[in-house]
Design goal:
Length: 158
């Protein structure tokens, strides 16, 4: 098995003013030309779930109400996974190029969560026009914009 070294480029800051990505000073230059992209893909570390026990859980007992009785971790967006890496597409509200702070609309990460990478969201590479999903989740919103209004609490068994 090969091991890789991954370093955080910054962290999530969630406070009363909103959600922010705060970059380490040495990575601020990497923000050049990011303006104009309405959304970015944020790759982050599920740091609150990074331990040997959760890295070895490969199946979950029906995490979603309409899902099969047992579901493989790779068929979930669970933080419990062999490598606790997460990917979230987020809307960019503002970028402070001097301080290295990106204000975002929302992210499903906790305050202080390490950020591994940022990539621009580009429809030519990131959008699938007609994606297929299993029947048990086919009623979920069809886009990020609709997800904010969806009652996600009714979908989970936890």
């Amino acid at each position: 098995m090969q091991n890789f070294q991954v370093n955080s480029i910054g962290k999530i800051n969630v406070n009363k003013e909103g959600a922010f990505i705060e970059l380490e000073p040495k990575y601020i230059a990497a923000l050049q030309a990011l303006d104009g992209f309405s959304h970015i893909n944020v790759i982050w570390w599920f740091s609150d779930f990074d331990n040997e026990e959760t890295r070895n859980i490969l199946e979950a007992s029906q995490p979603y109400k309409k899902a099969p009785a047992v579901i493989g971790i790779f068929a979930t967006r669970s933080p419990v996974r062999p490598n606790p890496i997460a990917l979230t597409a987020v809307e960019v509200i503002h970028i402070d190029y001097e301080k290295g702070i990106i204000q975002i609309a929302y992210i499903d990460a906790n305050d202080g969560t390490p950020i591994l990478d940022i990539k621009p969201y580009t429809p030519s590479l990131d959008r699938v026009e007609t994606p297929g999903v299993p029947e048990w989740c086919s009623h979920w919103p069809k886009c990020l914009e609709q997800s904010g209004e969806f009652n996600w609490e009714d979908e989970f068994n936890f």
